[in-house]
Amino acid sequence: MKNKNLEKMKNVYLLFLAFFISFSAFSQEEFEYVLIDSLDQSKEELYSKARSFMAYSFKDSKSVIQMDDKEIGRIIGKGNITLNTKTGISKYPNILNFTITIDVRENRYRCIINEIYHDGLRNQNGFVGGLLTNEKPDCGYILLTRNAWRDIKEDAPKLFEEFLKEFQSHMNSKSKVDDF
Questions:
Q1: Which among 110, 127, 129, 108 has a CA at the least distance from the CA of 118?
Q2: Which terminus of the chain has a lower count of CB atoms within 10 Å, N or C?
Q3: Distance (Å, whole) CA 27 – CA 143
């Protein structure tokens, strides 16, 4: 029993290591984030948790989810998240659109976030930076300064790392059975 727990801890440690290596390897050039983890749970349980994460994480999960296939264990969504960047004494709410792909299998799951696109400042037109892989923002440096674009590209990885930590926490949480 003790060896089994030690082996499980070792696997979790290796997954965390792979998780952080993937961030450092991809975050600055590809802006793709991947989390892979294993749990002693059925595919159905993991799928249910992934669906509930989508419902809790987005105001309208039905409009976010583009593909939902329980049989193969895949959910694909197009969501957005607000990144508040600080320039001087002001904070600016930047909208980042992204694709989230969740795959579940027996005893394991994977979450991929990619296609991250700066869609401008909330309630402002014209300040669109485009894909975070762009060297310069699509709108040019006149509307979105060089420093602001750099800050967005530097702060986005932290935001998505936190998002994936929330996803992992949700997936690792105990299922609650409500016998009301």
A1: 129
A2: C
A3: 25
pTM equals 0.78
DSSP-assigned beta bridge partners for residue 68: 75
Here the tokens at position 138 are: 């699509």
How many angstroms separate the Cα of 137 from the Cα of each of 33, 65, 88?
21, 28, 20
Q: Which helix (H) or strand (E) holds 66?
A: strand 65-69
Cβ atoms within 10 Å of 49's Cβ, excluding its own: 21
Of the candidates 47, 49, 53, the one whose C-alpha atom is nearest the C-alpha of residue 74 is: 47
DSSP 144: S
* CATH number for the domain running over 2-172: 3.30.530.80
Q: What is the pLDDT of residues 114-151, one digit of tens each?
A: 999 998 876 566 678 899 999 999 988 888 888 889 99
Structure tokens at 139: 């709108």
Closest CA to 78 of 50, 116, 49, 51: 116
